[in-house]
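During the second half of the funding period, the structural biology subgroup turned its attention to how the target accommodates small molecules. The most pressing case was iron/sulfur cluster, which had performed well in the primary screen but for which no bound structure existed. We therefore specified the complex as follows and requested a full 3D prediction, including the ligand pose.
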Amino acid sequence: MKIEDVVCTFCGCLCDDLVVEVENNRVCSVENGCTLANEKFMRDHRLKNPIRRDGNGWKAVSYDEAIRETAEILLDADRPLLYGWSGTHGEAQSVGVHLAELIGGVIDNTSTVCHGPSIMAIQEVGHPGCTLGQVKNRADVIVYWGANPIDAHPRHMSRYTTYADGFFIENAFRDRKVIVADVRQTESSAIADEFLKIDRGGDYAALSALRAIVRGKGDLIPSRVAGVTREQLFRVAEICMKAKFGAIFFGLGLTMSPGKYKNIRNAIELTQELNRHTKFTISPMRGHWNVYGSNEVFTWITGYPYAIDFARGIAFYNPGETTSVDILMRGECDACLVVASDPGAHFPRACAEHLARIPTVQIDPHVNATTHLATLQIPVAVTGIDAEGTAYRMDGVPIRARKLFTGSYPNDQEILEKIFARVKEAKRS
Amino acid sequence: MRVILNTGRTIRQGSYVERKTSADYMEEAASLNMNRMDMFELAVEDGNHIRVRSDHGEVVMKARAVEGLIRGQVFVCLGPYANHLVGPETHGTGMPDFKTTQVTLEPTTDPVPTIRELMERCGGVGYED
Ligand code: SF4
């Protein structure tokens, strides 16, 4: 059976034009997807049943047992951490927030180690963003700063920027200028009209130099700033100021480098300066397919986008204190529920060590690094393959991911609702 | 040799990220991408093993020559190998320094650990898929 307009639940582009063929509850072909989509749909390999650590080995347990044990672990904990959420649908994320409130825990999503600093900057100076449709149809200048879309968001350029013709851009490849700023050469920088090769840790200075030029203070600029020549900085500023509509996209090259959220603040303020001359927007290249959704869902329920601590009975947010890496580094949490992410692979080692010391339950379809650290793992359906649900694209547009077939796995929402019901019942009695 | 470790996404890492037990994932995640001149100075070739040490840990990886990296910088895709070296300090932002870890490199003949072994070193119990 061929299914059209399938949503790819891999990266934040959330492409919704895939054509997928399904036979006997397996995807057998994918059209329009990039390499990442093909791998995701075609080589899906799951954990077969819930497993529990048993001494130095593992044993299979039933879903009911696993759910009961998870509820007990959460009830026993004084400071539980509920982490992950970017790889599941909004409906499940919402149950997670209510569960965190019920147990007085901390709930945090993966933006804590991707675009958390971007959110902190946006909270300081705002977000002059727009949808990807606007970029596709209008933008004649595109800037990728600290981002490598060819590797991380392979269809971003072909659907929205460099190679995508739009309503006012008839021949994108000819009519759109592409500027890439990065500390290393990448496949993306290779196709740029201008590549600003920035010294490590020099993003803030390079952004400040561009701001100064756009502000008319170019005479202050020395012959080189962070490895970039004065001439090139002037050229790039001019391209931006002459644009009819410019769009900056930034990645983890800015959020993870020295300066962190101050880099993003500077980039947003450059965008503000450019808006004195023309129309310019700026947007983060959100990584996981529904990490933006986790920020939306957390915010509409609690008022905060990530790192929310319910220990006081109210929602409290303080990045650096209530963020997962800090909590784990301090050895503060005494239980962890990991949903749809892999902190074992993506957090510094000191955090992985703490996860191994405490009861850690993972709800995830696949065996990953966290599996080896966990006490219990519950496999679930994959949203966009055998589960449906709402996701938010990197520009904040909600898109409904469909189910391609009905499989045998429960989905995240069902498992979380059962855990929630048990915890609530225990609290009542 | 002292160098700076940068980490980030690669298309191969993304392709295999949901199959972390696969040899493909391990191959990508344990590759230490280097400038050729740095490799020359260390007297290592593509595929040779290198012990990478930081103030926070050490791990053996496989050297891989790439274009586009300046001398003194190495690149490892995000994942358990890179994170064996990255420190947990977030400077009040929640975000560790994933892109600027000082490391030292030393050729070795020791084997590259599997992800399961890395997690066992962290105190976990390996699960055989
Ligand atoms: S660009 Fe992202 S959303 Fe689009 S097909 Fe590739 S992985 Fe999927």
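Two results from this model are relevant to the next phase. The domain at 47-114+289-428 of chain A is CATH 3.40.50.740 (Rossmann fold). Chain A touches chain B through 75 residues (CB under 8 Å).
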